Amino acid sequence: MPTTPAKQPRTARTVCLPPAALVLVLVLLTAMGGPAGCGKKRLPVTPGKGVTAPLADTVRAEAEQAFADKNWPRAETLYQRLLDMPDLEPAVETEAWGRLAHSALRAGHAHIALDALDRQARLSPEARRDWAWHKLAADALESLDMRAAAAARLQSAMNDTGLPTEVRASAGLRLSRSLWSEGDPAGAMAALGGLYRQFPEPEGPSWQEPRARMEAALFKELSGMDQTVLDGLAALPRDKEAFPYTVVELERLRRMAALEPVPARAWELMRRLSEPGLFANPSLAQEVLGPLAERRSATAQGIVLALPLTGQYADIGWKILRGAGAAHWDLAMSGNVMGLRVVNTEAPGWLDELASLPPDFALVGGPLRSEKLERMHSRGLTRRHPVFAFMPRPGDLAEGMDAWRFFTGPGDQVRSLVSFAVKAMGIQRMAMLHPAEPFGVRLSERFWGEAIRQGALIGPVLGYPPKDPPKWAAKVAELLDVQPSQKEDEDPLPPDPGFEAVFLPDGWSQAQILVPQFFFYEEDRLLLLGPSLWGQGLESDPHVEGRYFRLAVFPAAYAEGNPAPGTETLRRAMDRDGLGAPDFWTALGFDFVRFAGSLGPLPEAWSPAEITAAARRAQSMEWSMAPMAWDDAGQARQDLFLMQPTDQGPAPVDPERLAKRREWIVKKHEERVEALLEKRELQELLDRQEQMGIGPDHAAEIPLTPEQMRINARVQELQGIIEQRVKEREQGETQ
After folding, report:
1. Which of 456, 586, 596, 633 lies in disulfide reach of 323, CB 3.0 to 4.6 Å?
2. How many CB atoms sit inside 10 A of residue 667's CB?
């Protein structure tokens, strides 16, 4: 390499070097100009004065050329040489430190890169306002296997409010990428979400807003992510309507949209991601949602609701319709064009109306009564349209073949109750007290079968005359095996029935008569299991005698306080449309329309297996009521909520709290039995004292036998125990 400039320097001033200075320059160039990579790498030091400006220009030009050619070892050497020269302009020196850091890192000298970045930032603090500076620092630390230090630097940059938002966003994304690649996806998503919330909400859609930039950057990052990692992020417990999970779901939807045919669950995901306010800039979502909505519209099929809009069940029909209307509006706003018609099953000619529907109205929801469904079947309508009936069982039709169930079934009720008793409360033996009529008998038989399946024992089982309440008390006594007292003036002992739970498959008004009878006979320890009918009764008669139902539970398909996203979506939709508070029936209509929108196009000549397969794909939707699922045979299952009657209405059961309450009640019951036994024993001993003449008036000079002494000691002991118990009870009452 020449040691003298090839052309005149660009500065107006020319410096003439004495021979001694020229020698010094030659020595310096010889020391630094060896083959790249030879010798120990070092940072430049500031030499003495006297290097010419033309020489600096030459070295800088060669360094820039090496940098452009990505000849990193040569670029590193030349930038070191340039920085050894005195009197560099600040801008040139700042750039040189940055390029030295870049070149050194690429040449495998990360420690030199870190020192160069530090010197650049000291010379020009503005360098830290560039993401490239932070990225180089993180790269260098990670190449030295100092991952914790790299994460700390990124965390610091992410939270530094003095840095530009794009730098902070880039640092957050880089930190998250490191976390999820190292097996901490939850930490990665938490970091992104925390930073996103630090930025202000956008005043309007704009790509320049920090939140919009973060969404776009993450979406780009996720596009190259392995499917397994992406699914792992989506599976984390989270708020699906909050960043970064909205972007994760958008990428999942983008991949689904590339499949042929589009999976049914994609339509539900499309609907959810179309809700306003989910993205800082909706244009990002529209890149995916727009084309998919066009495909959905091209294959849209209508649905029919067969409901009673007049007559005895009209109130229920209109509630279902209100929920369905709210869901249909949401689907329309998300671009899901789906027709909706309603047929009044109480009107003359309703079957003819169903028969005259155009072919694109493929799916029927309802009816509510098995008699109506059987009439549809006899007209051949269930073979023309897949029917999802709103009833516990499709009458005499074959579930999964002639019709499908979209409603809570008796099997769902007993399964949830038995599972709660066995698994949550540790109860193995149960009894049943049912009305002696078909409904009560059928539900009891199902309960028996489910209990056996889950390893519990049933016994005894008794029926009572449903229309003769005066006889119910005797049936409760028989169930508890109440034994009459031996003496008329003696307090009876509570029964010990040998079971810990009792199933009462009757309505709420009947339960309010039956349950107090158990307490009349001093049996307050039983877990009381009721059917979903209790919830319906509580709506019209919310009065609850709290002490009788402290250990009572019943299943429900809708829970008012359910925090699930689907339930919250229903609440918002009902409030938006001024439709009042939701309940089970509005949730039923709401979920059915959303379920139909998630099924995807149904074949014109469908088979039961195809309808079941579509239902199984769509069941992953977010439910506002208790989630439903279908097995391969088309048999439905609903995992119900467990509720407890309270003075404020039905409340979700807290299993741990209820178990502790039951434990406390059992303990108090045992103490009460123990007190009664002690009272009986004391009375028997007092009677014996009187018979033996050794009571309080016994003459002291008359010696006692050992047996008489034992009786007197026990009497004193029992009297002391009873007095102490009375004292403790009185103290408790005053407190």
Report:
1. 586
2. 11
As a whole number of angstroms, the distance between CA 642 and CA 528 comes to: 12
CATH topology of domain 1-145: 1.25.40
CA–CA separation, 137 and 99 (whole Å)? 13
Helix (H, G, I), strand (E, B) or coil at 431: strand
The pLDDT, as a whole number, for residue 240 is 66
Angle (nearest 5°) at CA 578 between 574 and 584:
35
Looking up tokens 């599976």, which residue turns up? 235
Cis, bond preceding 484 (omega within 30 deg of 0): no
Sign of the CA dihedral running 146, 151, 154, 155? negative
Cβ atoms 221, 214 nearer than 8 A:
no
- Domain ranges (residues) in the chain: 1-145, 299-406+570-622, 410-556, 665-734
The yes or no reply on domain 410-556 and CATH 2.40.170.20 is no
For residue 455, the model assigns a pLDDT of: 93
CB proximity list for 120: less than 8 A, separation 6 or greater: 94, 97, 98, 101, 127, 133
Task: Name the residue type at position 645.
Answer: P
For 355-507, list the strands marked E by DSSP: 361-365, 387-389, 404-405, 429-435, 457-464, 501-503
Task: Tell me whether the CATH fold assigned to 1-145 matches the one assigned to 299-406+570-622.
Answer: no
Superfamily of domain 299-406+570-622: Response regulator (3.40.50.2300)
Sign of CA dihedral 572, 578, 582, 588: negative
Per-residue confidence (pLDDT) for residue 274, from 0 to 100: 76
DSSP E strand stretches across 58-214: none
| DSSP string of 564-604, one letter each residue | -HHHHHHHHHHHHTT--S--HHHHHHHHHHHHHHHH-PPPS
Which whole-number Å values give the CA distances from 536 to 262, 324, 547, 618, 654, in the listed order? Answer: 40, 21, 21, 29, 21
Residue 16: both structure tokens together: 């003439």
Q: In what order do the strands lie in the sheet with 387-389?
A: 340-344, 302-307, 361-365, 387-389, 404-405
Is pTM beyond 0.70? Reply is no
User: What pLDDT shows up at residue 37?
Assistant: 37
CA 367/CA 472 separation, integer angstroms: 36
CA 312 to chain centre: 39
CA-angle at 132, arms to 129 and 137, nearest 5°: 95
